Amino acid sequence: MLWVDKYRPKTLDKVLVHEDVAQNLKKLVTEQDCPHLLFYGPPGSGKKTLIMALLRQMFGASAEKVKVENKNWKVDAGSRTIDLELTTLSSTHHVELNPSDAGYQDRYIVQEIIKEMAKNRPIDTKGKKGFKVLVLNEVDKLSREAQHSLRRTMEKYSASCRLILCCDSSSKVTEAVRSRCLNIRINAPKENEIVKVLEFIGKKEGLQLPSGFAARIAEKSARSLRRAILSFETCRVQQYPFTSNQVISPMDWEEYVSEIASDIMREQSPKRLFQVRGKLYELLVNCIPPEIILKRLLYELLKKLDSELKHEVCHWAAYYEHRMRLGQKAIFHIEAFVAKFMSIYKGFLIATFG
Amino acid sequence: MEMDTPATDDLEWLEADLDLHEDYLDEDLEPPLPEEEEESFIEQVYKHPHSETSIKPDNHTIGSETEILQPKKRLLNPSLPDPSNVEYTVEEKRCKVDFCVNEADDDWMRYSSPEEEPVLVVEEEERFISRYATDIEGDIMPVTAPDGDRVYAKLIEEKDDKLKKLEVKGSSKGLTSEPISVLMQKMEQAELQKALEASVASQIDEDLPERPTMSERLWVDKYSPNSFVELLSDEHTNREVLMWLKQWDTSVFGSELKSTTDDVLSALKRHSSISQHKRVSSKTIFGRNTESVSNSETFGERNRFDKEKYDSHGMKELHNKKSKDLGPPEQKILLLCGAPGLGKTTLAHVAAKHCGYRVVEINASDDRSSSTIETKILDVVQMNSVIADSRPKCLVIDEIDGALGDGKGAVDVIIKMVSADNKSDTRTENIIQSEQSGKTSSKKRKDTPLLRPVICICNDLYAPALRPLRNVAKVHVFVQPTVNRIVNRLKYICNKEGMRTSSVALTALAEYTECDIRACLNTLQFLNKKKEMLNVMDISSQVIGRKDTSKSVFDIWKEIFQKRKLKGVRKSIDSCRSTVNEFTSLHSLISNCGNYDLILDGIHENMLQLSYHDPVLKKTVKCLHSLEVSDIFNQYIMRTQKMSLQGYQPAIAISIHGVVSQVEKPNIQWPKSFHRYRTSLVDKVEALHTWHNKISPCISRHISTKSFVEDLVSPLLHILSPPTLRPVALHLLSEKEKNEMAQLVSTMVSYAITYKNKKVDSLPGKLRNEALTDTQVLSFDPPIGDFVNFEGYRSNYFILALAVKQVLSHEVEKQKILQTSIGKSKDENERIYLSGKEKSSKPERALENTKSISSLKNSSTSNRSETVSANTIVSASASSRSATSSSEILKSSEATKKRSSGPFNFFERVLQMQLKDQFACTSSECDNWISASFDGMGKQLVRMEQKMSQMTKREALNSLSCPDRFASRAPEGKNRKSYKSQSRYAFSNLSFRGFVFFYCKVRRLLTPRTLTMSVAPVFSLRGYSIRTLC
């Protein structure tokens, strides 16, 4: 097992980062009932870990015994029946699923599964929780309709079912849903927290950590704990004993983006833009979300940019990202940003150097 | 051929036409009056509203020229071999219009003589038409106009035998009778015409005496080319088509090249030379009557000269070709494609006729289902008609792309025939010939070859139905003829029809209809009928129906990227209007296509390849901005389903046109990359999902697709291929390395990753590793490496040596198997209570097995020693059996020390066997073992039963582990049944617990049913029920 999984805290007590949140959650659960919860925060901050620990806290070790199921639903939607299929993870106490996988039919999924859970409500509630928990991942990717349908079902079946929603950004979750949940923000762990975790792992693994090495990894990790631990393990695999100036291998796609950025800086012309387009397609094909590409590209471009242009470039990046989210074909928008940048930069170069 | 066919046709037609005229009385026209006496000539009574003599009411406001029923003239000149030609020449001379002389030169020469006698117009001052019959002397005939006006027309008998010309007055138009605007226009047109064509005396004779009567026949049909040289389509294409048809000659006519080839070639040559010398010739030819003869003579001579030169060359070429392949041409089908109205059908007909074929046409109006068309084609292609004319047939399938379902039937049949043909390619020409002659309907094989030329005509070459046809057919794409040619032709026809036009207007019309001559003619005829002028200024606003064309997307992209060239003179004046025109035309073009998504994709794909001047990429930014807008727009429309907003989409494309359009021709690519991106993205996501589902849930629940590609994949690749792992045999690794290896294997197992043999592809990343042989490339099974395999980028993760990969994949497989078995036995453990010690020992041992051989050895040794120390009979017997069977000379009644070594050896061997999976080599040996041990077991059973009570639980268990292993082998052995019976026998004597353990182990090898069956009697004997077990 990777260290990420190996040293993932199983219980709320063992949590190393977000200890305060963990304690609060513990208190919440010990009082027999809990409200609907909405976890949100950047990736790699430990939302899922906390949720799993929370489930364990609620239901004990049996919550960890999960099985994967490919469930089929037949939803009767007026004149036609819709066949839906979705992979769920379930234990005796909870069901976990990714409703956004169902695409635009996600609202049926949400309603159906909640109803189903309400139907199969455990009869004997003695000594047990009288409800099941439904964990919905990536709620921010749920369509608006699904979120609206969620808010009614949430109330209607609240006796038998608790929802734990998990998403990156709460802004995409409708107000109505948010107000029905207890919102729990999970920050990205601070660098010193990451260092703490890394040192903990190092100790467990019996590794000698040179001073500052963990800090370097933490710095490179962009405050994602997952990434930090993974690159820590990578370093371990590549070279041990560690040296304090050891190369921390970067993410491949980030390397690629920085290649693109240097391409852009080197030449600004439609021809070059065409090459850049090819590379952007490469990234997109490999499932890298366009928003992240754009963000990373901006980051790489800003590195090498004159300070007077930075504001403008940032402005346009934001502008094009906004449009990208409105639209559908991400490549158009990223490319438009690149073209805009090229235009600005070239104009700047001509103005400065003639 | 040319001489008689048209004439007869015309006669026939005339008869029909005369009847028609009865019904279709036009207010502007006087109908031709049928003559009672057959010999007498029909007088065309015509009137002119502006003429003083007109008796007609004033409601005929539109001035028209005098008209004469043209065909009548033909009748009047029966001596002339080809009246139409005479007519042409006469008119040409009169009008002095420059037009392309398409007639064969010889004909022209020949017929020029009659024209020498000028056809005089006989002016008659008499009244011909009157409201009152009394006004007219002689024979009269009542005529009723559609509006109810009734007049009487006089029937005149011409005295003149030779020239029967009918005259009407009204030829001269007073200036006052025309509105000033018309006059102005006329002047303008005249001037423009002058400027454009210096040679042409542009004014249309006011008093042109002869006017072909407006007939009900469509001009398109009327003036469709009858001979090859009249064709308007591209000369090259014409030539190619003709050559192709000619190549059939040997197989169809069975002769060498027909002599017509000379004519054709000469005609072709002349045709092209005429177009070259058009200016000159037209000027000279139409200058003076007298001159024309000599001129045309010299012209003809020149042509002949050219022709000879050309012929000798061309014939040689042809003969060379012929000697090479005597059969029908390589590609048996000709596929003509092009926009409507370019003359595809006409070309096919004319060319086929020219080559001596009888044309059989199948078009969209016919039944085109597969079955009917097959017989039809067979009829055409293989049979000669006995009755009508014995010319071989040529099949023309028109509009083959039209109806998808039906057209496909035709295509299939043809393809089948062609493929049959290719099979029988080896046949000699003679055979083909004889076959052809002997071919009758009786020979109805399924794959009858194609023996007659087949010409298919389509509009859209890329119609899906035509895909198979494209591969086998000779494809000719029609290009638009030059506007000049069209205009010349139109002008000629207009003059013939007596319609007043200007070349400017005609040019505009031709451009407007995109050189669709059919549309042009129909428009002109329509206008003529309405007595309207073709107006240059408002062609678009006029009645001219614009074709509802939907062009291919390629054309649309071209339109968007390519700027229309503007005529230099008019540029400044028209620039404003032309942009408006451009906008409307583009708009209609794009909205007719409707597939905005595709259009914009195409723009996106090709935009950056254009060479527009753009120093600081302002234009590029603008374009991409527009594309963005359209994308957002589209998304909004789709989300809100407000489809009406789609109407604004073309504007976006047009705005791009405004920015990037260039004069030069763009090189347009189909937008592949976006679609490729889409499909491969789907593939990758799919691969990721399946992989995701394979990972055990406690890990996979923490990984989303996003986090996988973002965070996980690069480190994972590094972790999975540690550079420290030495490519040596497993037992040579140090303890630490073994640990690392074990950890790596467990990681791989938990992430459901393994190495798989992959076909060798020249991935740059793979080539790097020199150690790899070509035959075997192991790569990650869910191809996670592909996720960082960006083009032009190489991830720097270490790639393990092949040996290591092999070891790893082996280990992973082993680990997986063990895990499943552990899982199963664990399940059992939970269900059935076992003593704590047993419980712990089993998984423990299983785990140990997996980890390394050495540790396993130790554990088993320790187990064994315990057993031995217990000194049970069973273990002793087991040891003895193993010893003998493994041909190690060890006797059962040895000292305890030896005994202890016996089981040790035995178990070690078994375990090693299991670990190394050496089933194949040791199976026979194993079988021996098993049978031997069972035999022995049977003998020992009684004693064992006795001792059983004395044994501790664990001892019993341990003793059982021996038959257990054998039994686990048993299902793979040969005589399974005997083993089963034996084992049942053995089981019956075992303790319950021992059995349970056995059951756990064997369960995955025996189906539950067989086990229950074999075990049930035992348990019923023993008083246990199966239910307690399961």
What brief labels describe this structure?
heterodimer, A: Zinc Finger, Delta Prime, domain 3, 3 domains, 7 strands, B: 1030 residues, mainly alpha, Rossmann fold, Zinc Finger, Delta Prime, domain 3, 5 domains, 5-stranded parallel beta sheet, 3-stranded antiparallel beta sheet, disordered C terminus
SSE inventory with pairings:
The complex is a heterodimer of chains A (354) and B (1030).
Chain A: H1 3-6, H2 19-30, E1 37-40, H3 47-59, E2 67-77, E3 80-90, E4 94-97, H4 106-119, E5 132-137, H5 144-156, E6 161-167, H6 175-180, E7 182-185, H7 191-205, H8 213-220, H9 225-238, H10 252-266, H11 270-285, H12 290-303, H13 307-326, H14 330-353
Parallel strand pairs in A: 1-6, 1-7, 4-5, 5-6
Antiparallel strand pairs in A: 2-3, 3-4
Chain B: H1 4-23, H2 70-76, H3 83-95, H4 105-111, E1 129-130, E2 140-144, E3 150-154, H5 180-196, H6 219-222, H7 235-247, H8 249-252, H9 260-285, H10 289-324, E4 333-337, H11 344-354, E5 358-362, H12 370-382, E6 393-397, H13 404-423, H14 429-438, E7 454-458, H15 467-472, E8 473-477, H16 483-497, H17 503-512, H18 517-530, H19 553-561, H20 571-593, H21 596-607, H22 618-640, H23 649-660, H24 672-694, H25 697-700, H26 705-720, H27 735-750, E9 755-758, H28 764-767, E10 777-780, H29 802-831, H30 836-851, H31 853-870, H32 873-885, H33 896-916, H34 919-948, H35 953-969, H36 976-988, H37 992-1002, H38 1008-1022, H39 1026-1029
Parallel strand pairs in B: 4-7, 4-8, 5-6, 6-7
Antiparallel strand pairs in B: 1-3, 2-3, 9-10
Tell the overall outline of chain A.
globular
Helix content of chain A: 40-55%
SSE class of chain B: mainly alpha
Overall average residue pLDDT of chain B: 61
Global structural class of chain A: alpha/beta
Proportion of beta-strand residues of chain B? under 5%
Task: Please report the first level of CATH classification, the CATH class of the largest domain in chain A.
Answer: Alpha Beta
Q: Strand order across the biggest sheet of chain A?
A: 2-3-4-5-6-1-7
Number of domains of chain B: 5
Q: What letter string, H or E per element, gives the SSE order of chain A?
A: HHEHEEEHEHEHEHHHHHHHH
Helix content of chain B: 55-70%
Order of the strands making up the biggest sheet of chain B: 5-6-7-4-8
Give the end-to-end Cα distance of chain A, rounded to a whole number of Å: 58 Å
Number of H/I helices of chain B: 39
Quaternary assembly = heterodimer
Output the CATH topology of the largest domain in chain A: Rossmann fold
Q: Considering residues with a beta carbon less than 8 A from a beta carbon on another chain, report the largest interface and each chain's count.
A: A-B, 75 and 71 residues
